[in-house]
Amino acid sequence: MALPPSSQMLDALAALLGPKGFTTDREAMAPWLTDWRGKYHGAAAAILSPATTGETAAAVRICAENGVAIVPQGGNSGMVGGATPDASGTQLLLSTRRMNRIRSIDRDARLAVAEAGVILENFHHAALAEGLRFPLTLGGKGSATIGGLVSTNAGGTQVLRHGTMRALVAGIEAVLPDGSVFDGLAPLKKDNRGYDLKHLLCGAEGTLGIVTAASLHLVPAVAARRTAWIGLESPEHALRLLRRLDAAAGRELEGFELIAQPCLDAVLRHIPQCRAPLAGSHAWHVLAEFAGEDGERLGALLEAELGAAIAAEVAGDAVIAQSERESEDFWRLRDSISEAERADGPAIQHDVSVPVEAMPRFIAENPARLASAFPGVIAHSFGHLGDGNVHHHVRPPQGCDGAAWIAAHGEAASRIVYRHVIELGGSLSAEHGIGQMKRDLLAELDSPARLAALRGVKAGLDPRGLFNPGKIIA
Questions:
Q1: Architecture of domain 224-338
Q2: Measured between alpha carbons, how far is residue 236 from residues 164, 201, 418 in Å?
Q3: First vs last Cα of the chain: how many Å apart?
Q4: What is the CATH number of domain 102-220?
Q5: Which comes out higher in pLDDT, residue 325 or 156?
Q6: What does the pLDDT look like over 353-373, one tens digit per residue?
Q7: Same-fold call for 7-97 versus 224-338
Q8: pLDDT, tens digit (0-9, with 9 covering 90-100), for 49-68
Q9: Is residue 309 very low, low, confident or very high in pLDDT (cuts 50, 70, 90)?
Q10: What is the CATH number of domain 345-432?
Q11: How many angstroms from the chain centroid is the CA of residue 227?
Q12: Phi-psi region for residue 66, left (φ > 0), alpha (ψ -120 to 50) or beta?
């Protein structure tokens, strides 16, 4: 069981880290003690901000010797309260934001080594300056950090082609709960020394180790892209279109986003300077993107495939962006959905995944299950059809106090969503992690075998439970 830090221990940490790396000032700590959504609030005895892996290891050793718990934090842009300390005030928040160097970029090997505090958008710019690209992006790229992205196994809109963060990580450097340093940065293609610690740490949300740096795969900067907005009747039609485009383009199909008409309507209502790409109304929309070297060939291929899809009544209408600006406008519509839906009022947001083939079924059946239990509720879905990730938002019945309804019925409604997901062989979390928000649901609904394995791994690497206690597993 974790202990509160003594004044002598805090003095030792202050001497180790200096004034830039240690603070107990309440005003300075306050912004980092509430999660991005404003749902979870905590307290901390101090914030530690080491500037190097060596300082991180030394600080962790002091905490381990004194039995004090540490909550690692990157950009504090997580969605499940995974980087927020509890309310006891006895835990220490360890920020990786000062470890913000890009140690190297190897153009020939298409590899980079970036420290945990490097902001994703800055990493994008550094890679592009070398004619390369880091193929993971998301709405919070201006604040999300490499360490946080590794620790949550982040996804985004390019998973269809490039995979999640785990697929892009070639190596990891991390400080373990006893203060030892795991140096796994070497980008080995073959390494059969037993359990893959790199993959264990990726997605562990700081419960097994504090990621201090990562070796990351880069790809050539895109020479050309062709983006289309397609209107169609149903998610089943969208899945048929996905299979058609995938067969035609293969790895050049980089994005395939599914959007319900009500989600688009919300964007058009609330986000300035947005317009509908198609003249008519369609129940569903797809944003598809090809990326590769030969823009002319990609454009011709996309036009031919969409024409054939319309002729086969798989799609109803489509338009291909005629410029980079128009492509960005299409993506702005997709990326603004969450902001627009927040403007419409409170909703219960679910980030889940199901097998790709089952996604149309989930989208079609789950709203009816919810309405049967809670008449008047409305559920809208959007997300990454290419990888089965559904953003499923449940809105309270019209005319009621939305916040009060969610407080009274939100957990029960979410259980209907999550039970359906598990029934279809899916996951309670697609790309934001478990944190503290989904910890109890995971324990209640997921496989006992999975839970036993997670607890065993945690007990083996962090037997005293000092790293990010209360997250992922109880």
A1: 2-Layer Sandwich (3.30)
A2: 25, 36, 21
A3: 13
A4: 3.30.465.10
A5: 325
A6: 999 999 999 999 999 999 999
A7: no
A8: 999 999 999 999 999 999 99
A9: very high
A10: 3.30.70.2740
A11: 23
A12: alpha
Q: How many Å apart are CA 422 and CA 283, to the nearest integer?
A: 27
User: What does the longest C-alpha to C-alpha distance in the chain come to?
Assistant: 75
Domain ranges of the chain: 7-97, 102-220, 224-338, 345-432
CB neighbour class for 366 (10 Å; exposed up to 12, middle 13-18, buried from 19): buried
H/E element, 459? helix 448-461
Average pLDDT over residues 67-72: 98
Rounded to 5, what percent of the chain is helix, strand, coil? 40, 20, 40
Fold of 7-97: 3.30.43
The two beta strands, 219-220 and 224-232, are unpaired
Helix residue ranges, H only, 336-396 = 337-343, 359-373
Give the span between the Cα atoms of 152 and 206, in whole angstroms: 9
If you ran DSSP here, which 8-state letter would residue 192 be given?
A: -
* Orientation angle between helical segments 235-249 and 295-311, nearest 10 degrees: 140
What region, left, alpha or beta, does residue 131 occupy, with left being phi > 0 and alpha being psi -120 to 50 degrees? left
* Contacts (Cβ under 8 Å, ≥6 apart) of 275: 268
**DSSP state, residue 145:** B
Indicate the pairing of strand 92-95 with strand 70-73: parallel
Please give the distance of CA 457 from its chain centroid, rounded to a whole number.
23
Helix axis angle, 359-373 to 235-249, nearest 10°: 160
- Report CA torsion sign: 89, 179, 164, 333: positive
Predicted structure pTM score: 0.91
Quickly state the pLDDT bin for 444 (edges 50, 70, 90): very high
Residue type, 62: I
